[in-house]
């Protein structure tokens, strides 16, 4: 058990284990980080605070060190690996790992602004498309680095006071694998599944043997993960341009519970593109159809989506 009397053996072991797995991982001394305001607790009881690292505004993602060491080390490692290899001006910079008694924390840039959805509420179609093109460009750049998000939602994109768009985090790391209730328990992730592709519920490849991986299989895996993001981007574009939350227009009630949406996805139902897009913005409807194909391999690439959106934008 971890004690509160400095760096104990458990903390030392965790530090060594992280160092063994990640080359040149930066450990930040606790006295160099100042914790400020509490921001949120997510669905897996991970707390997030604002803070300062020197003169840099940071986001502090705080975990129980004991939980990381004994229960979620692989997932924690996955997040750090993704953070270390993601270098993009519109994605929070990762600074390193810190320890404070029984806590371990990940330190990122703090992104300030309003959500993409809120920002777009008062904009016309062309202005919305300008924002969406920025968002798709970020994802396109990440896909070129073989980085897929696999957790895109409207609230993952933040617009700052200069109208520059940022991706708020690096994706969904499943710290409570197999417990979908945890993923749905917080208000922020209340509509998590409405942006998720049908293959999210297909676990056929979950137990694949890493030893059987080849360069070709890894390439296909990365491509399919990227196609997951394409479905999510289609949902986001549909919502921003229509004001209709994905799947709420599938039935006549105008509502759709999480359970119903999951059943639609499990049954491979076709995504219901809102009538306003079909009737008034046919070209946009055609673009969405390229994103929202049930078979992931048939979806367009992010670079192709970006090209189509830019062409449509320039035609308006």
Description:
With 316 residues, the protein is an alpha+beta fold. It has 2 domains: 101 residues, Phosphorylase Kinase, domain 1 (2-Layer Sandwich); 179 residues, Transferase(Phosphotransferase) domain 1 (Transferase(Phosphotransferase), domain 1, Orthogonal Bundle). Helix content is 41%, strand content 16%. It contains 11 helices and 9 strands. Strands 1-5-6-4-3-2 form a 6-stranded mixed sheet. Strands 7-8-9 form a 3-stranded antiparallel sheet. A hairpin with a 2-residue loop joins strand 5 and strand 6. Helix 5 runs antiparallel to helix 11, helix 7 runs antiparallel to helix 10 and helix 10 packs antiparallel against helix 11. About 6% of the residues have low confidence.
Structural class: alpha+beta
- First-residue to last-residue Cα separation: 63 Å
Architecture (CATH level 2) name of the largest domain: Orthogonal Bundle
The best one-word shape is globular
Average pLDDT figure: 87
Q: What is the H-and-E element order?
A: HEEEEHHEEEHHEEHHHHHH
Oligomer: single chain
Helix content: 40-55%
Sum this structure up briefly.
With 316 residues, this protein is an alpha+beta fold.
How are the SSEs ordered, and which strands pair?
Elements: H1 9-21, E1 27-28, E2 33-41, E3 47-53, E4 56-64, H2 65-70, H3 73-85, E5 94-100, E6 103-109, E7 114-115, H4 116-120, H5 125-144, E8 157-159, E9 165-167, H6 180-183, H7 215-242, H8 258-266, H9 275-280, H10 282-291, H11 302-315
Parallel strand pairs: 1-5
Antiparallel strand pairs: 2-3, 3-4, 4-6, 5-6, 7-8, 8-9
